[in-house]
Amino acid sequence: MKAIVVTDRAAGRAGMKLVDRPDPVPAINDVVVQVYASGFVGTELGWPSTWTDRVGRDRTPSIPGHEFAGVVKALGYGTTGLSVGQRVFGLTDWYRNGTLAEYVAAEARNLAPLPGDVDFAVGASLPISGLTAWQGLFDHGRLRAGQTVLAHGAAGAVGSIVTQLAREFGAYVVGTGRAADRQAALDFGANEFVDLDNEVLESVGGVDLVFDLIGGEIGKRSARLVRAGGTLVSVVGPSEARPTDGLAVDFVVESDRAQLGEIVQRVRDGRLRTHIARVVPFENAVAAFNRTERINGKTVIRIRP
After folding, report:
1. How big is the chain by its Cα radius of gyration, in Å?
2. Which of 69, 73, 106, 170 has its CB 3.0 to 4.6 Å from that of 89, i.e. a possible disulfide?
3. CB contact at 8 A, 260 and 112
């Protein structure tokens, strides 16, 4: 099969290559999926799991990409809940070869059915962004109607879904980003917007939940805005500052079939829009990853037309 691999951590994206690799073989409780579309997160090349296995041994050449949509082609021993020919989407294990390939092996429990009226590219854009937003807001942030949410990066792939879900569940959302992101964040449902380059973050006053996708100085300043009993949720590592009288939670997104079902149903009925910035053919993927311009939104690679 054709796959994109990385072998040199120092080279970063410049070291990505499209090569021939052996087809994957399903393990117990696995499925092999023919990948139609794959998502890619730019920070993956900084994750230890891209380069080593769980005990620290080098596992390159490794195939990056961990979210995808496609069609089940084979079942491993003992696999239940999915069938050959079924459309699916979801996440692969961080320590296994990923989805920038024509085929991928994944645990069946990490995948969910993809309805026939949802495009594969849309399906591939949802798992990391959608599950991160869902778990940060509800599992870790304990969001309740009437609360105020500070959503950093509100026009991006994750932040736009944070904004939409928070509004659906009755929150008041203050989005942040660069000046050029203002209209997009408002279009995704933010009640107001703070331009982090030119406006004062502290002007928003107290909030019940901070969803931090930035970290650093912005994360520290955001912690001071959390009201008593509130929560700062981070997906960029442990916060450098904690709320005075609240919680600070950092987490790594996990696959959840039921949550994937909730997310894709919202896409189907129009309650949720995923922010796809561009869809790139597989043969152009390496060049697309190495472009220098800022892309606000998800890059999806269409593996199969």
Report:
1. 19
2. 69
3. yes
Contact call for residues 122 and 145 (beta carbons, < 8 A): no
Q: 236, 215 in Cβ contact below 8 A? A: yes
User: Model pTM greater than 0.90?
Assistant: yes
Cβ-contact 212, 232 below 8 angstroms: yes
- C-alpha 270, offset from chain centre: 20
What number of CA atoms fall less than 13 Å from residue 181's CA on the CB side?
Answer: 31
Evaluate the CA torsion angle 252, 257, 260, 262 in order and state its sign: negative
pLDDT truncated to tens, each residue of the chain (305 aa)?
999 999 999 998 899 999 999 999 999 999 999 999 999 888 889 999 999 999 999 999 999 999 999 999 999 999 999 999 999 999 999 999 999 999 999 999 999 999 999 999 999 999 999 999 999 999 999 999 999 999 999 999 999 999 999 999 999 999 999 999 999 999 999 999 999 999 999 999 999 999 999 999 999 999 999 999 999 999 998 888 899 999 999 999 999 999 999 999 999 999 999 999 999 999 999 988 887 777 788 999 999 98
Is the separation of the CB atoms in 202 and 180 below 8 Å? no
